[in-house]
Design a protein that fits this description.
44% of the residues lie in helices and 20% in strands. By secondary structure, the protein is of the alpha/beta class. A hairpin with an 8-residue loop joins strand 1 and strand 2. Helix 7 packs across helix 8 and helix 11 packs across helix 13.
Length: 398
Amino acid sequence: MVTLDKIYHAAFVLKQVARRTDMIFAPKLSQDCELYLKTENLQLTGSFKLRGAYYKISQLSEAQRAAGIIACSAGNHAQGVALAASRMGIKSVICMPDGAPISKVESTKALGAEVCLVKGAYDDAYAHACRLQQETGMTFIHPFNDDEVIAGQGTIGLEILDQLADVDAVICPIGGGGLISGVAYAIKTLNPNVKVYGVQAENAPSMAQSVKQGEAITLETVKTFADGIAVKHPGDVTFEMVQKYVDAVVTVSEDEIAAAILALIEKQKLIAEGAGAVSVAAAMFHKLPIEGKKVVCIVSGGNIDVNILSRVITRGLVTAGRNSMLQIALEDKPGQLLGVSQIVSECGANVVSVHHERSDANMAVTSCFLTVGMETRDFEQIAQIRQRLTEEGFKIVN
């Protein structure tokens, strides 16, 4: 059972290993509320998961330590377990989905763990880890459905109340529910007036659907680049705690997550992974009733693969109206491209790519499609360019 005493004990134990991460004022991310970021992406392993994993392992008996430990993870819990195990001289085996970012796999190995890649999603890695645990007798360290793990994550709630005593609301990412269970329990126990909200990716809404249906459900598939919260089935313990202590659970789209990652990079100089940015996405895209409130978004992790980050930035630019494409039907004659580029330039945008298509069977022999890629300021500027082109007689196809 999770208790406040256990969370305070976890805070004492974690003093020797976990950072007390900064609370950063982030006025540029939202005009609707007074927004702060709890920067767990700057934690020692790049994620809050170190807290729960270390505290859980610190409470094992000598016999359990001697037998070794096994865990399953999409990457962040893996690194927390690996670091804790190596610090305490314990053998660790981590089962990870084969689609986990390479950076997380390599970091886990570098911290001293033996990594076993399992085909499928997190839940498939979990099933394999359970089989290995039965075969080997090693102690299983669950990433979220465990009282000590939840207590470790709950230390973030203590820190938030200490760093911002008059906080009105806390927004927290949800995968299996360990983080929000610990945070919500700590905050609601100490100050019931503070609202606690959870956020999931809309393509992996296991907790959101479970709360809606009143029972823990299992999704057939999850598909989100926010791999840290791609969980098909929430924990039984965490589901009950979310029902009791969390005020609402909402979802955000892949494009909204990408836009939040981009905003954190540009406006706060912070790198967040998809799972870490969902809280900010919920605030940015008005998913919650937080207008005029003092709000803390927990940025839960920053372990994003560089290759994925590149794609996410591109997606975020499109979502924010910073990159755009126009397809224009033209008479294929000299001066047409000049006319288009001149209008784009006069509107203050920048042409970054041009492609002529003359082979479409649906167009006249003397016509072509011109696809123009542009760097733009926002959607208002895109609308201005489209209007000017239309006024000058150009036919916009898309």
